[in-house]
Amino acid sequence: MYSAKLLEHFEHPRNVGEIAGADASARVENPACGDIMQLTLKLAAGRIAEARYRTRGCVAAIACGSALTEMLIGLTPAEAAAIRRESLVAAVGGLPNESTHAGHLALDSLQAALKQLGS
User: What is the C-alpha to C-alpha distance for residues 3 and 7, in angstroms, rounded to an integer?
Assistant: First the structure.
């Protein structure tokens, strides 16, 4: 059902938590399933130096948040805005049809955070 990469992110999630003094913080809820993701970003020299997340949700949502934070570190806000759902899905080794909402939740959180940065 889930890929080995997705399960690895779920069992050993990266960058969990909140950033004190974050430059952006967004909390998004998926109204269909009730999953919630909070994403915080910290910039340094115009790049995302730190990305952390908290998720109340399914296995796939936790894994997508973990993978997204790994993808973000080192990017400019404009580069982060260019991340596509397909890239995130590939980073977790694919998503089953019933879990596609998890990728949308993570990217919606990213877009909401980037709006705070003016991107």
Answer: 6
